[in-house]
Amino acid sequence: MTGGDALREAAVIVPVITIEGEPYLILTRRSRKLKSHPGQISFPGGIRDNGEELWETALREMEEEIGVDRDSVLFVHCLEMTETLMSRIEVHPFLALLSRRVFRLNKEEVEELIFVELSLFQRTKEEVIRLPSGEETIKYRLPGLVVWGATARIIDSSLEKILDILLNTGYIDFINDD
User: Fold this and answer.
1) In 3D, which of 103, 96, 100 has the Cα closest to residue 67?
2) Quick check: 40 and 149 in contact, CB under 8 A?
3) How far apart are CA 85 and CA 163, in angstroms?
4) Which residue in 129, 145, 158, 174 is a FRET match for 24, CA 20 to 30 A apart?
5) What pTM does this model have?
6) Which residues does the UniProt record annotate as the domain Nudix hydrolase (predicted)?
7) Backbone angles phi, psi at 40, to 5 degrees
8) Other Cβ atoms closer than 10 A to 160
9) What are 17-45's pLDDT values in tens digits?
10) What residues contact 47, with CB distance under 8 A and at least 6 apart?
């Protein structure tokens, strides 16, 4: 690739919080006023600024979009990169364990926060979607919610790693019903 062909880079935070002892992913519904991916379900994040570390991008965007300050982040761990299929952006996700449930939505960027129990993704089979380009992506069809594209692929590729990290850090303690 020549310099002009390089993909743009973005970073997202995959925020996890416990509610009554259960881990939840925090998703956002992007504002319908945005030019890029309006109304879609996503993680807080955005395009990397020049010279900025990717994890810094993710934390900055989380602060800007949902008002979670860095003091609430217990732990950050790099997850597997994916690429958006439509806008061709390289997305670098970072798991963040949050200690507090204090949020201030930037309504210009985020319409709502959506809390989804992590185990719901374990119990829900992802479905393949064929795009008009012929490329394939996936979606999760949840009660009252469809999570698809890069966000669904991040969840799919990271779910087991997230659960392992949560268990190994002692952040949560699952009861094994085997």
Assistant:
1) 103
2) yes
3) 27
4) 129
5) 0.88
6) 6-142
7) -80, 160
8) 10
9) 999 889 999 999 987 776 666 668 999 99
10) 8, 9, 10, 57, 89
